[in-house]
Queue: 2 jobs
Job 1
Amino acid sequence: MIRFLNQSELKETYSSSKDIEIDAKHLTVIPALIDPHVHFRTPGENHKEDWAFASRAAIAGGVTTVFDMPNNAPPCISKSSLLEKKKLINEQLNLSQIPLRYHLFFGAEENHLDEIYKVHPEIIGIKIYLASTTGNLLIKDPHALERLFKISEELDVSLSFHAENEPLLKKQSSIHPYPKVEDHPTMRPREGAVMTTSHLIGLASKYRKSRIHILHVGTKEELPLIKQAKKEGLHVYAETTPNHLFLNSSDYSEHKTYMQMNPPIRDSEDQMALWEALKDGTIDWIGTDHAPHTRAEKEKPYPSSPSGIPGVETLLPLLLNAVHEKKISLKKVIELTHTNIVKIFKLNSNKDLVLVDLNLSREVKNEFLKTKCGWSPYNGWELRGWPVYTILKDQVYRCQNLENLSL
Ligand code: DOR
Ligand code: ZN
């Protein structure tokens, strides 16, 4: 039996072959995190990541539920590809022996929209790419986009958007044939994100029963639009990522392509506005957009280097450090990483927990990361506040070495 001592919030005991008593006086109990935006790369790109590695990374970071994106190879855009993807994920989770909770997004593809009718009870939502990024999913046809809003109303399924503007990306590439990574925010200009978010809110107002999620919001200009849409009672929700909160354009000179992601990390003014938007409820949740690529891929010269940053295991320490620095309250962290996500995605509740040490200081080190890609832009950051135990389906894991104490 496992018993946590000196912890009034945790009276429960957990089964184990050994009798274990853990002094939890210095630990704080919070609901396990939900990361509603990950790319665990199955099928097709398991050289970057797989679910055996990523489930360990998640548990080490206090995350017990993830929602995985459909930009795989092949993309998840049909009932058969969805079933095949689940089968492969379950095989990989079997290797790590971590029964991570997961849901899958279904990809919108212009010629496969009918497939949504076959899969909608089994998916967490539909992911719609309105600009090119990793993979080849892209909705260009305005009629297909309107049809998706009608489907959202009809099936009560949410639409999650990558909100950038494809023609603007093409235009910038033609104007700037030899960009540097510092130009990434110019190559994918803020105007594209703002005009796309504005257009989507217009559609949400036309199709009032539709539910839309603007993912990885990165510009200060999108925030008042989202705030106003909420005021008008539209079902418009917004996500930002730790990368948009903890990095800004002055960091490109240090991190180069290792902080290249889409939509781009922008200026400190955007970063500050995002922190305010967490506080005032304009942003509903934080998703890591855990998007690993190998070092060799990231070392390619920009713009051949792929966009994406891993993050599932650094999310909680970054946020707890921000609590320590009084940039955000622990209550707000819980809302943004758990409570709001349960409500908005209508999840069943569970008893998964994380025990965190708010005073533990430790450095993020690439060599200790569990993700297969083995790097993080936060390598070398000294953070105060770390998960110590993660409880998933009544199994107690020690975060640092991932020992399952319940066995
Ligand atoms: O930076 C990104 N990486 N943005 C995306 O939209 C996709 C992701 C990936 O899958 O690599
Ligand atoms: Zn993503």
Note: The chain has 14 helices and 15 strands.
Job 2
Amino acid sequence: MSAEDTPKPICEDHVIKGRRLSKRIRKKVKSEVEALTEKHGLSPKLVTVIVGADPGSQMYVRMKHKASSKAGILSDHHDLPESTTQEELLALIKKLNEDPEVHGILVQLPLPKQIDEKAIIGAIEPLKDVDGFSPQNIYRLFYGGEKLSSATPHGIVTMLDHIGWGDLSGKHAVIINRSTIVGKPLIFLLLNRNATVTVCHSRTADLPSFTRQADVLVSAIGRRESEDDPFFITPDMVKEGAVVIDVSTPHGDVEFEKVKEKALCITPVPGGVGPMTITMLLQNVLDAFTAQVS
Ligand code: GUN
């Protein structure tokens, strides 16, 4: 292999290159999708559902469709009005569960308050649950044999794997987030990699006393509304040599330029966790398709 062929490192100048890693994984997903499409005469298909007109949800879902198309994954979308009832949404999910040409179902969260999120997530066929939120997939995660897992946490541990931090024995991971989408699934993914895990959230007292202990610090606070707002994670809150993962978009939680001086590796915003989240969704669609056609 010539020097030109040597793949560039995922952590370079203390920065975890989320886009670089995403590109590599998406290329692999695309070639596997092509091979499976040829073998089965059928392409994987993702169907997304949005209820209401939240602009953030619309933007994220558009990005998911664009990335799917580039990877050879078919996709379809249902835009339902804010007034949709739980019964109407359940009826759509039943139809998608039964459609053999649909391999992945993603209901974008949050849902309007008249709809019980748990009832909707629980109704999605586990093999098609590309978010990994269904009871069966959470159970698998709990026992350490997950097949489909939530895209953002999955992206985070995949980045850790690629910087050589796949086994976290002896390492203390501190997560600032307790959501069902990020914090809670990440607890198990990190525990399953032997980390000692601490979870902090909005009611935690003395946050810096926890963050300073972190070998792996994952911050998903997401309350900075503009570039002018103060950062939540400043260098005095970070241990020398820590791996720092900033999940929050679009403004980030971490004072990137200063924390980079102390961190072993840090994810940028944008270009860190964001592209990895979409990449792991594509991987999940591929894995769901593989399980359904085999
Ligand atoms: N809303 C924010 N992130 C996500 C996600 O990963 N999946 C779904 N379904 N909704 C979200």
Note: The radius of gyration is 19 Å.
